[in-house]
Amino acid sequence: MDLTTVVGVLMTWILVLGAMSSGGNLMAYVDYPSILITVGGTLGAIIMAHPGDILKTVGGAVKSAFISRDPNLLAMVQTLVSFAEKARREGLLALESDVADLDDEFLRKSIQLVVDGTDPELVKAILDTEIGILEDRHSANKAVFDATAELAPAYGMIGTLIGLIAMLGNLQDVSALGPGMAVALITTMYGSMMANMFSIPISKKLASRSAKEIVSMELMVEGILAIQAGENPRIVEEKLKVFLPPKVRQRLEATQKGEE
């Protein structure tokens, strides 16, 4: 569970809805025609703008924003260094017994390629292609939320125009002024809420999560190629430590000094 996403969502919605309800009845902000225009219109436009195979993965993308954890780079470095020590001591084929125990599919595939004796350049090409495809898939999911953030305020504005036209067309009917003005104002609020309280935060979370996953995969590629080249485990570790955030790197170095 990603606590930052959960806390952020709860804080945003509870505070905003709490502030709205403090001024009176919260139901005063509920207007069904405005919901149809803003939410229905935005969803329809999103369906028009994106292929079905991308839309099918949106639920998984939202789920990953709430549930997935950031990759543990320190554990990856330690695993790869231990593989480098084993390969240096017993040969690359000795790593085959570790493949089945690995949880990370990308690392498992990488080690298997090395164990199978694949040419290093081909290993790098295969893994780079896989990273590129993953990056494209993440970008496609993020684009759905970016489009929602762009379209929701636009449909809110359409609702505002519809409300104003209805109001101006019935100036002689005082009873029609209220509903028309409600549609005009509330659709703008709905569009802004959809964009700023859901779509933009989720889009930014997905971008951050994708960037961290890409870094972890690049770390694995660097480590696998170093292991395949038979480099000294200490050199492998130095190469991989550059991927660690400064505080994590300092913690690793402090632990190593303590062990010495």
Structure summarized in a few sentences:
The protein is mainly α. The protein has helices spanning 3-22, 32-49, 52-55, 58-67, 73-90, 96-99, 105-115, 120-168, 174-228, 233-241, 246-259. The mean pLDDT is 88.
Beta content comes to: under 5%
Average pLDDT taken over every residue = 88
Which regions are unreliable across 5 or more consecutive residues at pLDDT < 50?
Answer: none
Q: What overall form do the CA principal axes indicate?
A: elongated
The oligomeric status of these chains comes to single chain
Distance between the termini: 36 Å
Rg measurement, Å: 26 Å
Structural class by SSE content: mainly alpha
Largest sheet geometry: none
DSSP E strands, number: 0
Q: Can you give the helix content as a percent range?
A: over 70%
Order of helices and strands: HHHHHHHHHHH
Number of helices: 11
What would you note in describing this structure?
The structure is a single chain. By secondary structure, this protein is mainly alpha-helical. The radius of gyration is 26 Å and the shape is elongated. The longest helix is centred in the last third of the chain and has 55 residues, at 174-228. It has helices at residues 3-22, 32-49, 52-55, 58-67, 73-90, 96-99, 105-115, 120-168, 174-228, 233-241, 246-259. 82% of the residues lie in helices and 0% in strands.
